[in-house]
Amino acid sequence: MPLRTLCGAALLLLASACTSVPPASTAPAPAAFPGASWEPQPVAEQGPACRRGLAATGDYLRTLDTTALMAVQDGRVLFAYGPVEAVSIVFSVRKSVLSMLYGPPVADGTIDLDRTLADLGIDDTGGLLPIERQATLRDLLTARSGVYHAAANGGDDAAAAPARGSQAPGRYFLYNNWDFNAAGTAFERMTGRSIYQAFADDLAAPLQLQDFDPARHVRSGDARRSEHLAYPFFLSTRDMARLGHLMLQQGRWRGRQLVPADWVARITQQTTPASQMHPAHTARRGFGYGYLWWLLQEPPDSPLAGAYMAWGVHGQYILVVPKRQMVIAHKRQVPVAGDWNVSWVGPKAFLHAARLLAAAPCRAGEAP
Known about the structure:
Helix content is about 30%, strand content about 15%. It is α+β, with helices and mostly antiparallel strands. The strands form four sheets. Strands 2-1-13-12-11-10-9 form a seven-stranded antiparallel sheet, with helices on both faces. A two-stranded antiparallel sheet has the order 3-5. A two-stranded parallel sheet has the order 4-8.
């Protein structure tokens, strides 16, 4: 049965699935993983603080334009809101997915992150400048290429880009779709596999994604502007949670290392603090950046300290919260009745909901 909007009696049922947080000295339960479908946390004794936290989250989400949210703790569903099975475009979450796919070919030597665009024969419409062709794959994955050629699609900070050729590769952060799209081209050239085939084989199949349809996936964009097209993904909220749970488990899934653990650590380690981002409005968001993942910069006592996220425009998020062994997937589905110009659920609003969930003293039962 699909998970539906949490309200009324359903809210009480989910709230009753929480237990009090065990003492810090209690050993963690073995990692739990979903099978063909997600399991709810087992009904057990729970405290009133857990119930209040979940109820407050549901109340708050009803004030937003959230389509669906799913929180998983210790491998089981703690909280669900809305049609978590609904599939729609997740925008820039695609970039974090590509970062995950890079892991195995980097580990086996198929991809060398220090190879330059010139080494790989990567150019673009009208030609790249000599200094731009010295950018490495690592520069692309960290949004520091110094390449300000037009991208095939929008949704970035390209309007604030410096003059072409003015920034040496590796020195200047700009959230620029040219970097991310060219990183997709490089992946396909060096591995001999399409992004979507790699995703289907290496992640979707072993994770048992419930709603992924390879047939609807194709690279897209304006090829007159750039030959490096975008690679949109269409995912459900519950499948987004599986990707987050894989990251939480350091790339390991039911005894298989799908993404190398050291790669998970590397891509979620800060390469650019908020203070070094451009333009100024990006720096003011207060997030750091790794390899295509956004990193929260929270005080040590925050329940979200150490968390990181994939983030797509309009309100698509996969938040991984190691401190609470939690993953929170959020969807703001677009278009709405054919209209793409609709309201957003911005990071401030989403993270308020995430804090309510992460602060609630709820805990799953032990894995069977």
